[in-house]
Amino acid sequence: MTFSRRDFVKTSVLGAVAAGVGTRAQGEDAKPAGQEHAAADNRSQSGSSKRPIIVCANNGFNYLDDAFAFLKNGGDTLDAALRVVKGPEDDPNDTSVGLGGLPNEEGVVELDACCMHGPTRRAGSVGGVRNIKNVSLVSKAVMEHTGHVMLVGEGAERFAVAVGFPRENLLTDHSRKIWLLWKEYHSTEDWWGPGLADPHWQPPPSDDSGKPQSELWQERWHRLEEHAADLGIVPELRRDAIHKVLFPPTGTIHCSALNEKGEISGCTTTSGLAYKLPGRVGDSPIIGAGCYTDQDVGSAGATGSGEENIKVAGAHTIVENMRHGMSPHEAGMDALKRIARNYNNDMSKLRFVDMTYYILRKDGAYAGVSLWEGYTTDTWHKIAVHDGTRRAEKTVALFKGASQDFPPEPKVPEELKREYLK
User: Fold this and answer.
1) How far apart are CA 262 and CA 345, in angstroms?
2) Active site positions, annotated
3) pTM for this structure?
């Protein structure tokens, strides 16, 4: 029987997928730990570091048990990290990654991902991929079966199909309806500049109708509720849909895994900015921005304002900071300060920027830091951790309070947050 190189590649990739990625773990509800990362960071530096350990964005919390068991039983560090991020990629109800991810402004889902394997010092990446759900696994396939590091667009999709990944429609009915709701509401507001970095950018003007902000926001919500009902969005999902229209998410998941031998790997995957311009690629698939792993030092990854993270090469900056002696907490805070420096610490602009870093050093010390405490005063940034105990912890923030989304909207009055965003 003849066996072509393509057949070999397909068999190898699908075998690796089957071996390296399991099913979703059954999880309990996330409970914030009693101490923040700075305390954990200090404990780990004083000699109580634990290995193995996995750190990730909080949307990976429910998948940590399975991945940690795999890692503890000798599984490869990158395959353990991929087990975590594949969960949200497969979940149609997670609108930040993979299947069901919110689309670009034309209604098309475009995905980005990258991975780095510390033990072999290799990397793989894909950007702007359509019709392929598990782009994190495709990035690993690029790493293992090509002489390249990054493939993008149509070429990345064709490669994925060639090595055995199925094409499928990634736009779920629910995500499509949210996109239609956004199209109606944002007919004159989108990602067509100017951006925050433009010297001519101005904060949004205040409303001159004379109406109180609370009344204006009530009118917006009622109008959106009517549109959502007309589109067929079921009542129990309308508030979530409206929130994603008013505050377009930047959803992403990063995961880093460290085993008992000190081997470390990381990966990041995303559907990118909701309603972005077609072809936009953020920081997630860029080695050194959305993810960076160095076997000698540690691993870091990011979620949040991708354009800002690219400009400071955030993940690489953090790992290099640790190489030069900074703790994970100090290394992450330095990267956040570089983002603030790029805007001369102008809070009228920085309030529209947010960033969360997930940091793991080779000895097991970790940290989670963020530019702001959360996207709202009721939604805190968190890092998920498993070192034998699974938990979610609040990040340590550079600035107090909540960020605001960009393109900017007038600030929601607190009383309406309690009424509509609960």
Assistant:
1) 38
2) 96, 252, 270, 280, 303-304
3) 0.81
